[in-house]
Design goal:
Oligomer: homodimer
Structural class of chain A: alpha/beta
CATH class of the largest domain in chain A: Alpha Beta
Strand content of chain A: 15-25%
Number of strands of chain A: 14
Largest interface: A-B, 66 and 65 residues
Radius of gyration of chain A: 21 Å
Order of helices and strands of chain A: EHHEHEHEEEEEEEHHHEEHEEH
CATH superfamily of the largest domain in chain A: Type I PLP-dependent aspartate aminotransferase-like (Major domain)
Helix content of chain A: 25-40%
Number of helices of chain A: 9
Shape of chain A: globular
CATH topology of the largest domain in chain A: Aspartate Aminotransferase, domain 2
Distance between the termini of chain A: 35 Å
CATH architecture of the largest domain in chain A: 3-Layer(aba) Sandwich
Largest sheet of chain A: 7 strands, mixed
Chain lengths: 361, 361
């Protein structure tokens, strides 16, 4: 069978060795005679998996001591409202940077709990750029933004400066580069890109920000409850956490986030270079705003778009169709996509272009 | 290696063939060259898994046409408050049957959103029996109860009659016997017993009950939003749903819930017979109230308890320690535990008793 190159935006590619280890754990975890799928979440085996996952997050991102690591459920979609009800008092104000569909969803959900003031937005040009100036009111309980815009292919290259606490949705670029966690009150990320399979959500939180909204929250929606229970208030999603832990072990073996960032830059440069030089394709995002994770591009005509989509699929490039709200193409080149895979896509684009020229001359 | 018999209360045993198929899907799903862990939730492969899971639920439980099947996250703990905010208007009343720790938690979370009136309770004797009479106010928005009490080993043998809509937590006995879904407005169940691994929650819901609370809910907490989106409003926990589907296929091959109920009765009878006849053990729950899923029992002294716990573990009986809020023993004998496993536990109890008599005479 030919190798399939998986460019899906999420759930997305993970390393082959993680798949092999995960499959082994499904059959017989640590030679225990039991499956990871059947053991109690309070068993020694699972508790040690959870502890290792937490400590790998702390080590890989150099998380300051006072921060807590939680593995929750519901993806970023659950964090959109959960962050608001935890940090926004009745009648309070928060400010949001709007750079895409996911930011807009976060704003919509938070608006149910208080006044949301836009800090900046790039909606006027269909989210094809990143705003440079942000107006952050002093009375805002927090600033929320999305570090990487999976759908539109833009990414903030540095942390946004703010006097108010910063909450950041890093679902699609966490673990792809070093970050300074101390600059954020809370970071959250659905696992299904650079962390693990769908089914768990990483939250890195400074407990100091908790307990100020004055709301009577359901226990499951209260970060403090999860912190007090070491992320074991309810039965956690054991297998998604297990695979996340295996993947973090893999990342550590690769040299951690600094080493993977170098590879990610190399991969992204290779692909953007082809897009910029191949006359059939284009990407009009400013270079310094381009995402290193989700490379969005367009064909120069709908006919070419249609033809290349078919050609790419025939050539084992899976998942490169753009998101339905934007169209075009999107190649997600997360940590687990190696340079060989990106080279294969580049070669496929080049071959398509040669064939096209032959047919049309 | 000796076979380990897994009597854990949840996450818990699943059939060996489900583990084998799940491991295969982690390596190469349907010969696609991709892992179930890396494919998009909107891919054809996953959509067909989700549809098959839903239709197996409908078929196995003979779910009436108008009901919807959802696979959410957060376990029963999330349903405790989510059911309340969806069905309890501001200032409204609901009534709850309190038969254990999980019922009590459901009451605690719902109390944050309205007036909770007890329909009945067995808390006076540490939940060691089931109340027979239930006082259900006519103005209650709904009645909530727990069909099987995992911790205390009691189980309602028939559905509770009620004039108001019934919401039932069936986390630990769903798919263990036939049920008449039409008697419930909503049924929910954390997957990690008879359905699948931890990480997804089954909701069977009559849409007619939705949209009446008048609350402005976050999208993720609104059953109607999940119904309108076919349980795909956000990225669902793809792997836990996949394994649930495989397990439901297995259940269908076993002859469905009527056939499995016969096996479950046989297994439970075998174990209760040993408990009742072995002088070192006891179970004081009335026979008709005993759980067919979680067989709770005690040793006649703390010394014997301690000694048997050790002996059972040495004899490959895993997970029989009782829940920390009750103590003693608990052998969970879900669908995937075969009669050979129960016979092994019975033999272990009998052998322990013989050894004990030898030592003490």
């Amino acid at each position: 069978m030919n190798k399939v190159y998986n460019f899906s935006a999420g759930p997305s590619i993970l390393p082959q060795e993680v798949f092999r280890e995960a499959a082994e754990g499904v059959l017989n975890l640590n030679q225990s005679g039991l499956s990871i799928l059947e053991i109690s979440h309070r068993s020694k085996d699972f508790m040690s998996i959870l502890e290792e996952a937490k400590s790998l997050v702390k080590e890989l991102l150099q998380v300051p001591e006072q921060y807590e690591i939680l593995f929750l459920t519901g993806g970023a979609s659950a964090q959109f409202y959960m962050s608001a009800i935890n940090f926004l008092p009745e009648g309070g104000t928060a400010t949001y940077i709007d750079t895409g569909v996911w930011s807009a969803k976060a704003i919509k959900e938070a608006s149910k709990f208080g006044k949301i003031v836009p800090a900046s937005s790039s909606k006027d040009r269909n989210y094809s750029y990143l705003p440079k100036e942000h107006h952050i009111p002093n009375d805002a309980s927090y600033l929320h933004y999305t570090s990487n815009n999976t759908i539109y292919g833009t990414q903030f290259s540095t942390a946004i400066r703010s006097e108010v606490p910063v909450i950041c949705d890093m679902s699609s670029d966490i673990f792809s580069r070093p970050i300074d966690v101390a600059k954020y009150a809370m970071i959250y990320a659905g696992a299904q890109k650079n962390l693990g399979p769908a089914g768990t959500t990483l939250v890195i939180i400074d407990p100091k920000i908790c307990g100020k909204s004055g709301r009577n929250l359901p226990s499951m929606l209260d970060y403090q409850v999860h912190i007090e229970n070491g992320s074991m208030f309810n039965t956690p999603p054991t297998f998604p956490i297990y695979v996340s832990m295996l993947n973090l072990r893999w990342l550590k073996k690769q040299g951690g986030v600094r080493a993977i960032q170098q590879k990610n830059i190399e991969k992204a440069n290779l692909l953007y270079q082809e897009i910029d030089s191949n006359p059939l394709f284009k990407n009009e995002i400013a270079r310094e705003e381009r995402s290193m994770m989700n490379v969005v591009f367009d064909a120069i005509s709908p006919e070419i778009e249609h033809a290349f989509l078919k050609f790419a699929e025939e050539n084992y490039c899976s998942g490169i169709k753009g998101h339905r709200s934007r169209g075009g193409f999107r190649a997600s080149i997360y940590n687990a996509m190696d340079i060989e895979g990106v080279q294969h896509l580049v070669d496929t684009m080049a071959l398509f272009s040669i064939n096209f020229n032959k047919t049309n001359h």
